[in-house]
Fold this protein.
Amino acid sequence: MEFNLIEILLSPVTITIVKVLLVFGGLMIGILYLTLAERKFSAYIQGRIGPNRAGRYGLLQPVADGIKFLFKEDVIPTHVDVGLFVIAPILALTPALMLIAIVPFGNELILYGRRIPLQIADIDVGIIYLLAVASVGVYGAIIGGWASNNKYSLLGGIRASSQIISYEVSFILAVIGIVMTYETLRLSEIVQLQDSFLNWGIFRQPLGFPIFLIATFAETARMPFDLPEADAELVAGYHTEYGSIKFGSFQLAEFAHLITSSAVMATLYFGGWQIPGVAVNESPSLALSLAGVGSFLVKTSIIIFFFILVRWTVPRLRFDQLMQFGWKVLLPIALLNIFLTGLWITLLRSRGLASAPAR
Amino acid sequence: MQNSYIPLLIHLIVVGGFAVSSIIITHLIGPRKPSKEKLDTYESGVRYFGDARLRFHPKFFTVALFFLIFDVEVIFLFPWAISFRKLGLFGFVEMMIFLFILAIGLVYIWKKGGLEWK
């Protein structure tokens, strides 16, 4: 009887469902408290206190915000294209939440003699999935901006899409550098290969990392590049006409994108769940696996913290500067990075030196 | 392994279900007190004029065209990058010629003024 129960509980489908719910729940809680962290942090930078009424230190503020979003009137203005207007927030939110599925958040967990990879889906084209799903998110912005039938929204949507596609090229070229170094598209393998400090992506791709970082800022439309919703020019950009949970969905998508981008950055450039100084173990103990998850969360949090810091300390660019920077500076450097990476690997190999992390 | 895509499907159902159901629930439980002002287009409280289906700058179209070219090229790089070491020096030189031709395209766009915003 008891044996059967364990059998059912540890069947692949049950494990997957549990993993999905845990990751999804974790991500949602992460998003909720990220909004609070962002507000508190900006308050301290600007010499204010920030939210402090709901709960101790404002800890219940995100919950209050969420409830408020849910119970607000669902306004659909008369001039909008109703079908597209409703679909846009769903199209923005779903891809943003889908991305986390391929990020390995820990080593294998061994439970009752079974190996459970701490990753929802370990697919063989992980990086291509990442790029494909990330670029679906732009449809939410452009469709929302178009359907709103509002001049601010339209401009915001067009700005968002042209900004995202401009930086997409450099983003992908930076990722190509990582693929050349580790020769795999599987994110779990990329993490496994970053087993020592010097094998981390940031040391293997010292030029690729800044390109990836800047492109991520543009893709998530964070502060130096938040032209799509520049509030001094466009009210709120493509979600000007939205209210209640539809507006909430756009906000959730934005923060989900931020968290996932940080997680991907930690995975590709900072060794993911690898703990510096601890060797990868073929059969890790429970404690070691959980420590790996902790390491992953700490790295991701530090990157998110960096994103927030930049948002509240750096002024916004002008739109022509943004586009010119993407095409005239970032793209040539990204092409150069591929050339240098190839040259470096070829040179090392011709001298008989190890050019890649050992498999 | 074909199986590794099933978890993705489960994840899509959970996430998509959340996105759709939250919008439906809000639509059902929220109050409904429409008024003319509330349902009007919001343009900072100023009386709006005309439709928002404006003509916008053709620059945005050319940016989309440039993107298309470079994005397709980048897809060609993936299979090469995965088997980079197996292809050896020949593969490296070959792809650098490809990238060089592409860089000429970028220089051409640049010289033609395709990247200027005025």
Remarks:
- The two ends of chain B are 52 Å apart (CA to CA).
- Residues 27 and 60 of chain B are 35 Å apart (CA to CA).
